[in-house]
């Protein structure tokens, strides 16, 4: 279980407003999202989460709280304070949010990726919630796109990107 300890709400708030990049501040390597059990202590309150996404460096293993996870901690802290409790246990509701733009395609994705991968929900070009959410598919699906002239498929070490070619735009 990963533990985060803050001496005061102000200390937590300073972390809350800190914007993280997808690179590790220690070694500069890329971070990836991992699901973890987390205990967060803010002053004299303990918040326990059975499932929370963290950014973990692929190289050195250092972990960071992404934006959405910090929002979850903040909301949980306010619930515990309002109830005058000193401990709270929080579990995911299990709901799978579906973004409006892709409901009919029934893509497989975890909506939390959109909110936790730095930069995705700050996309000002598209203004569609969830537009940059990574989707999961079998690599064999790329065969379809490789034969269509309106798509160019770039297979890289880190990612596979299907990009419409300029011929496909009207």
Report on the architecture of this protein.
This protein is an alpha/beta fold and 170 residues long. The protein folds into 2 domains: 2-90, Ubiquitin-like (UB roll), CATH 3.10.20; 100-168, no CATH class. Helices cover 21% and strands 27% of the residues. The chain is built from 4 helices and 7 strands; from the N terminus they run E-H-E-E-E-H-E-H-H-E-E. The strands form 2 sheets. Strands 1, 2, 3, 4 and 5 form a 5-stranded mixed sheet that branches. It has a two-stranded antiparallel ribbon with strand order 6-7. It is elongated. The chain starts with a strand and ends in a 6-residue tail after the last strand. Mean pLDDT is 81; it is low at 157-170.
Question: Mind sketching the topology for me?
Answer:
Blueprint: E1 2-6, H1 9-16, E2 31-42, E3 45-57, E4 63-64, H2 67-82, E5 87-90, H3 111-116, H4 142-146, E6 151-155, E7 160-164
Parallel strand pairs: 1-2, 3-5
Antiparallel strand pairs: 2-3, 3-4, 6-7
Gist of the model:
The protein has helices at residues 9-16, 67-82, 111-116, 142-146; strands at residues 2-6, 31-42, 45-57, 63-64, 87-90, 151-155, 160-164. With 170 residues, the protein is of the alpha/beta class. The chain folds into two domains: 2-90, Ubiquitin-like (UB roll) (Roll); 100-168, no CATH class.
């Amino acid at each position: 279980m990963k533990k985060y300890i803050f001496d005061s709400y102000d200390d937590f708030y300073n972390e809350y407003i800190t914007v993280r990049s997808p690179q590790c501040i220690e070694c500069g390597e890329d971070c990836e999202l991992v699901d973890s059990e987390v205990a967060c202590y803010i002053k004299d309150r303990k918040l326990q989460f059975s499932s929370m996404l963290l950014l973990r460096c692929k190289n050195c293993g250092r972990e960071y709280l992404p934006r959405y996870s910090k929002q979850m901690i903040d909301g949980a802290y306010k619930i515990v304070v309002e109830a005058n409790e000193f401990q709270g246990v929080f579990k995911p509701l299990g709901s799978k949010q579906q973004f409006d733009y892709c409901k009919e395609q029934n893509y497989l994705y975890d909506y939390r990726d959109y909110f936790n991968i730095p930069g995705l929900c700050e996309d000002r070009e598209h203004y569609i919630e969830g537009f940059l959410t990574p989707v999961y598919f079998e690599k064999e699906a790329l065969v379809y796109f490789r034969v269509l002239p309106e798509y160019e498929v770039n297979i890289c070490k880190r990612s596979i990107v299907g990009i419409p070619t300029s011929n496909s735009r009207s």
